[in-house]
Amino acid sequence: MGNSSRLPWRPPAGAAATSARSGENASYPYLRCDMKDYSQLLNGHPELQRKSIIGLGEAGITEAIPFLKDLLRTQNSRLRDAAALSLSEMGVQEAVPAIMDLILHPDNEGNRGSLIFSLWKLECIDYFQEFVNIVCYGNYESRHNALELVQQYRYRISPDVRRSALATLQGKRVLAETEDDAEREVAFLEYVEALLMDFE
Fold first, then answer.
1. Which of 28, 41, 55, 162 is the most exposed place for a label (fewest CB within 10 A)?
2. 131 and 103: one domain?
3. Which superkingdom is the protein from (predicted)?
């Protein structure tokens, strides 16, 4: 599983020295301890918005979970991805179906790497076949992040799911053998097949 150090943003150096008298969170100075309306975090520079939303999860501010769930519905992919990462950091398991809906939506096909990454800390074995599909047909970032989930769950899937996943990989390998630069793609698919066959 990934850890928080692998998230795309970390608190700025020296943030922990922020004065508690100001009412600010010691590690996340832009998150006030008395904050009630988390939509205030959507004001200001886009990068600060993203950092603030991720910071909610890293600071463990569970009161913000409803706000973060609502934010998954935004059309702004940067904020949506940050909300998914924040919910993941707090282990909000009930967010998995909504995150998977986003991952599988055709409009997000080229921009779902961070959403898949957010699932690394959540239980989502029921979507194993979908992860195999992404490993076969996703872009580079999506494939990498989905492969992590395939590796994570490969010892726990049922025989039927294993057979289905192997059939998907083998079908994609047959197609890949007819394409340009086939050697690299075929080697990758054979590697994933080997992972699923080595389960004892």
1. 162
2. no
3. Bacteria
Burial status of residue 86 (CB atoms within 10 A of its CB: 0-12, 13-18, 19 or more):
buried
pTM exceeds 0.85 for this model: no
Domain span including residue 151: 125-200
End-to-end CA distance of the chain: 21
Question: Letter for the amino acid at 12?
Answer: P
Judged against a pLDDT cut of 70, whether residue 26 lies above it is answered with: no
Mean of pLDDT over the chain: 85
Both 37 and 5 in one domain: the answer is yes
Q: Please give the tally of structural domains in the chain.
A: 2
Tell me: do 87 and 137 sit in the same domain: no
The residue among 66, 92, 123 that closes a domain is 123
Identify the helix (H) or strand (E) that includes residue 172: helix 159-176
Largest separation between any pair of C-alpha atoms in the chain: 66
How many residues are recorded in the chain? 200
The DSSP-derived string for 34-58 is T---GGGGGSS-HHHHHHHHHHHHH
Judge if 134 and 98 occupy the same domain.
no
Rg of the chain (C-alpha set):
19
Of 123, 154, 173, the last residue of a domain is: 123
For the cut 50, the answer to whether the pLDDT of residue 1 exceeds it is no
Phi first, then psi: give them for residue 178, nearest 5 degrees: -95, -5
Give the contacts of 184 (CB within 8 A, at least 6 positions apart).
none
Name the residue with higher pLDDT: 181 or 59: 59
